[in-house]
Amino acid sequence: MSLSNCGFVLATDLDGTFLGGPRRARRRLYSWIEETRVQTGLIYVTGRPVAFVSDLVRTGHPCPDIAICDVGTSVYRISSDGTAVADADLEAPIAARWDGATDRVRRALAGHPGLTEQVLPFRHRLSFDMDPARLTSRSAATVRTMGLDLLISQNRDFDVLPKGVSKGPTLLRVLDRLQVTPARVLTAGDTLNDLSMLVSGLPGVAVGNAEPALLSALDGLPHVFRATRKGAAGILEAMARRSLGPDA
């Protein structure tokens, strides 16, 4: 079924959000999604690489209609057996903005204190484990000088991204291309790398275990619900407020 025909689409972060919270809540949410799949769409919006998503599907988690991976820098179609295929059409603007910058970024940040490159197969992004006690302002300045974006989350991840590309902008472009009505979407997240998604104007929920920095950044935004429950339970809490889901 096309996402454009779904009455509800959940666009959710994974770690700490869709995969977080009490086991009972996760089972209830996942079962409801599968039982209502004719009318319910699912988009994973994660900082994880696509291999992580494929493994989730192979181990019985709901298969997403679309997987937005690598903090919004890659977009995949996932089959029920976990096979992933990059959507070249949806990725074209991302690739153009990155313009093969991986080696340039690697050289520019070589030797910067507090940064250790993550050895993962990113295509339109370069990420580092960060030691905040050793990091200097020179690293952020270097990224800005290159015309790229910097995202720091959980005080440990230092992500260099194409200019203007992150979870929120990529999700909006995917929804527009697939003709999904924004009012039918619920976004969900728990860390600062979910901020661009939650401030995009789409209905959203910050789950109960959201990091304080994210909650602070969301002050004054009436379209984002602050759940009291953690992870999947927080998603269910937000869905019930919209008369959706098993707890509605």
UniProtKB/TrEMBL annotation:
<dbReference type="InterPro" id="IPR006379">
    <property type="entry name" value="HAD-SF_hydro_IIB"/>
</dbReference>
<dbReference type="InterPro" id="IPR051518">
    <property type="entry name" value="Sucrose_Phosphatase"/>
</dbReference>
<feature type="domain" description="Sucrose phosphatase-like">
    <location>
        <begin position="8"/>
        <end position="240"/>
    </location>
</feature>
<keyword id="KW-0378">Hydrolase</keyword>
<dbReference type="Pfam" id="PF05116">
    <property type="entry name" value="S6PP"/>
</dbReference>
<dbReference type="InterPro" id="IPR023214">
    <property type="entry name" value="HAD_sf"/>
</dbReference>
<dbReference type="InterPro" id="IPR006380">
    <property type="entry name" value="SPP-like_dom"/>
</dbReference>
<dbReference type="InterPro" id="IPR036412">
    <property type="entry name" value="HAD-like_sf"/>
</dbReference>
<protein>
    <submittedName>
        <fullName>HAD-IIB family hydrolase</fullName>
    </submittedName>
</protein>
<dbReference type="GO" id="GO:0016787">
    <property type="term" value="F:hydrolase activity"/>
</dbReference>
